[in-house]
Amino acid sequence: MLRFMSIRTATIATAFVLAPFLAQANTELTVKSERSTFAVKGMQKTSEAKPAATRTLHLTLGAHWIQWDDGSDRGVYDFVKHEVIGVDTKAHRLVEVSMYAMVSGRDAELDNRMMLGSALEAGKVADNPMSPTLVEHQLSLRHDAHRASGIERKSAEGEQRYIWREKELFAFSTTLVPVTNAERNLLLRFLRYQIGGHPEVFEDLQKLDGIPKWLRYRDPGLGQATRLEVLDSRKTPDAPYVLPKIEKAPMKNAGAAAAAAAVQASTPESRAAFAANILTKANEAADAGKPLQAMLGYIERQLMIDGEMPPDFHKRSETILRDDNVKALLAAVQANSETQARDDVTTLTRLAALAGEKAYVVGIFRANMESQLGNREAAVTLFVAALSKNPFITGVWKDLGDNLDTGYDAGDTWRCYETARIIAPDHRMLSDITRGEAAMAARYPEYF
Question: Whole-angstrom Cα distance, residue 200 to residue 205?
């Protein structure tokens, strides 16, 4: 009896010791990936059927991330950092893209295609290539949950199929590979990003007690198909993902990339010292009878670290604010009409010639006016010029990011935002970014 109890106690103790490791184990999937094309009526020869391109895809599912490697491309979807990190083997660099940027681009593309689809529908175009259901399928985003998709579900011979206008959109095996619900959700997020699929399909996949042995995605609009089949599944010890220690890919704008590198190499102490020097020079300019340069210095510091104007400014404000050029500056930083914006550009151009070494700060305000007038290239040039002089101006990183956002490619936009957050994460100018990210995650929680 004592021996039995000892064995039983030892077994229980072993279970308690091993449980954390088993619960936190990673899952590795070996997947056969086949990509092919098929002919689409009405399309050019580029849509003729081609042999399937077959690759072996290795996936590792961690606690909040999924890593992929297909022999040529590899990377990680990190759902804590909300980043996709790809390895560019040719350039020997890591390419980091915000998930917010990726979903933002899809959302913009969704609206664009829906608008074009409506125009084609109004013109009674047969086989509308931008029909709402087809667009939602391609981008894996739902535009209007109240609109009937017209998708039919058909079950037969161990598979679930999704048919739209007599064309298959998706199919998957009813034979399941056992994984946890968390692992299933990770894989479904990965599939949304990687291959697409109508949200209604994913709603059904989300209800499964595992993942399908195989699945098939078809795009009847573009004539593209992807088939994935799980060949092997195994548990491995819990471990973080590992990426090669190589440089990160910089932003496309060389000047912005250089300024961002300076921020990444800085420390809180070095940035504080830089801001203190800006304040010292502003005080010196004020005391030397240069009110415009002084005002620009105080504003520059505020754009860096936020908060109220420093006591040093208030001690000198009466003299500074009495200056005609300072009055002109403060009157030209906002515009309520195109005419006023053009007048402000003229004023700011004149003041830049009087601002000495602080001309780049005047350029920040002119950049905002140029942006308001639709001159994005001019605005970007002026913002980058300011950052080349002072890379720690939080507000300029935010404004530069806004102007780099084309709607369809917001990768560098979020790189600017993340650079700004390194400098002053709680700056009030960044609050609308945080709100925007929260709104996007609330609208499309399946991506985050």
Answer: 9
| Closest C-alpha among 244, 246, 237 to residue 27 | 237
Structure tokens at 168: 């298959």
Structure-token pair, residue 429:
């100018």
What tokens does 229 get? 């089949």
Write the pLDDT tens digit of every residue in 368-403. Answer: 999 999 999 999 999 999 999 999 999 999 999 999
Q: What sign has the CA pseudo-torsion 195, 201, 207, 208? A: negative
Write down the pTM of the prediction.
0.83
The CATH architecture of the domain made up of 254-447 is: Alpha Horseshoe (1.25)
pLDDT of residue 2: 31
Rounded to an integer, the average pLDDT of 337-357 is: 97
Q: Which residues contact 160 (CB under 8 A, 6 or more apart)?
A: 153, 154, 171, 172, 174, 204
Which residues, including other chains, have CB under 8 Å from residue 355's CB and lie 6 or more apart?
Answer: 292, 293, 296, 361, 362
Q: Say whether domain 25-236 belongs to CATH 2.20.25.
A: no
CB-CB contact of 234 with 203 (8 Å)? no
Contact by Cβ (8 Å): 61, 187: yes
- Nearest one of 164, 170, 169 to 149, comparing CA atoms: 164
Closest CA to 191 of 31, 52, 47, 50: 31
Domain boundaries, the chain: 25-236, 254-447
Whether 229 and 217 have beta carbons less than 8 Å apart is answered as no
> Which of 295, 391, 300 has its CA nearest to residue 351?
295
pLDDT digits (tens, 9 = 90+) for 62-120: 999 999 999 889 999 999 999 999 999 999 999 999 999 999 999 999 999 999 989 98
List of residues 6+ apart from 358 with CB closer than 8 A: 292, 293, 296, 297, 300
Nearest to 210 by CA among 184, 236, 189: 184
Quote the crossing angle between the two packed helices 291-305 and 268-287, to the nearest 10°: 160
For the record, the structure tokens of 116 come out as: 């074009």
What pLDDT, in 10s, does the model give residues 179-210? 999 999 999 999 999 999 999 999 999 999 99
Tell me, what amino acid is at 244? P
Spatial separation of the C-alpha atoms in residues 357 and 368, rounded to whole Å? 20
